[in-house]
Every structure is written in structure tokens, then in C-alpha cells.
């Protein structure tokens, strides 16, 4: 497992943008799949986006497709989630998750696929 730290949450008005970052403590993400999940008040944690570091493939939940973008930095240190056109229903605690893997094209999207989790960062979108 790897220790993960999320940064960048906060309060934003509807229609605004936020950028979340996930960093791995003491190592790079070069052989990991990294995902973002969120738990809204009163709801279960759900998938938001994921990226396969090796091949760059990414996937998104339908609710955030087009508005959110997941990316990796060239230094292999952080994964970012750029969130645009935010809506009040995007309000949630956002979690970064990671899983080391072999092979080239794996792109997990279920909670059970990931073995390392961050503590979460609060994103609040006001109407």
C-alpha cells in the first residue's frame, strides 16, 4: 500500500472550478492506477474518475463526464482532478485511491479494486 494525501478542496460557488491533487508519499505513481471517489451527504461513496498511469487511459462517471478531467504530471508525483462547471450536487468528500498493478491497460472503477486510500478532502458547492 501507499500513503495518499489529497489537496485542494474548499468552498466554491455553482459554476465555479476547483482542482484537487493526490500525492503519494515517498514514491511515484508510475505503476499505479489512481482513482477519485466521492461521498455526498447521506449517500454511499461512488466512482468519479480514474487513470492508468502507464498508458494514460482514463474513465469518468457519467455525472461528471465533460466537466471533470483527471490528469497525471510528468514527474509521476501527483494525479489531479480538474473540476469545472461545479454544481451543488457535486458537494461531497472526495477521496483519492490507488492500486499498484502489472500489465498495461487495466483501468479499475470499483472501490474494491483499490487498496490505498487518502483521508478525503471536502468540496462544497454553494448555489
Describe the fold and architecture:
By secondary structure, this protein is an all-beta fold. It contains no helices and eleven strands. Strands 2, 4, 5, 6, 9, 10 and 11 form a seven-stranded mixed β-sheet that branches. Strands 1-3-8-7 form a four-stranded antiparallel β-sheet, with no helix packed on it. A hairpin with a 6-residue loop joins strand 4 and strand 5. The protein is globular and about 45 Å long. The model has no long low-confidence stretch (mean pLDDT 93).
Secondary-structure-derived class: mainly beta
Helix content class = under 10%
How much of the sequence lies in strands comes to over 45%
Q: Biggest sheet: strands, sense, closure?
A: 7 strands, mixed
Gyration radius, in Å: 14 Å
Q: Name the average pLDDT.
A: 93
Instruction: Quickly count the helices.
Output: 0
In the predicted model, the low-confidence regions spanning at least 5 consecutive residues are none
Overall body shape: globular
SSE series: EEEEEEEEEEE
**What is the end-to-end distance?**
38 Å
Number of strands: 11
Write the SSE topology:
Elements: E1 4-7, E2 10-13, E3 18-24, E4 32-39, E5 46-52, E6 58-60, E7 68-72, E8 78-83, E9 92-100, E10 116-117, E11 121-126
Parallel strand pairs: 2-11
Antiparallel strand pairs: 1-3, 3-8, 4-5, 4-9, 5-6, 7-8, 9-10, 9-11
Amino acid at each position: 500500500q501507499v500513503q495518499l494525501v489529497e489537496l485542494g478542496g474548499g468552498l466554491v460557488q455553482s459554476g465555479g472550478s476547483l482542482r484537487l491533487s493526490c500525492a503519494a508519499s515517498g514514491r511515484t505513481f508510475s505503476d499505479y492506477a489512481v482513482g477519485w471517489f466521492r461521498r455526498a451527504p447521506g449517500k454511499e461513496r461512488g466512482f468519479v474518475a480514474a487513470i492508468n498511469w502507464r498508458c494514460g487511459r482514463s474513465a469518468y462517471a457519467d455525472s461528471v463526464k465533460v466537466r471533470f478531467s483527471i490528469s497525471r504530471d510528468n514527474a509521476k508525483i501527483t494525479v489531479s482532478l480538474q473540476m469545472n462547471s461545479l454544481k451543488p450536487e457535486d458537494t461531497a468528500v472526495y477521496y483519492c485511491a490507488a492500486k499498484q498493478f502489472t500489465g498495461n491497460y487495466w483501468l479499475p472503477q470499483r472501490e474494491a479494486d483499490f487498496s490505498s486510500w487518502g483521508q478525503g478532502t471536502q468540496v462544497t458547492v454553494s448555489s
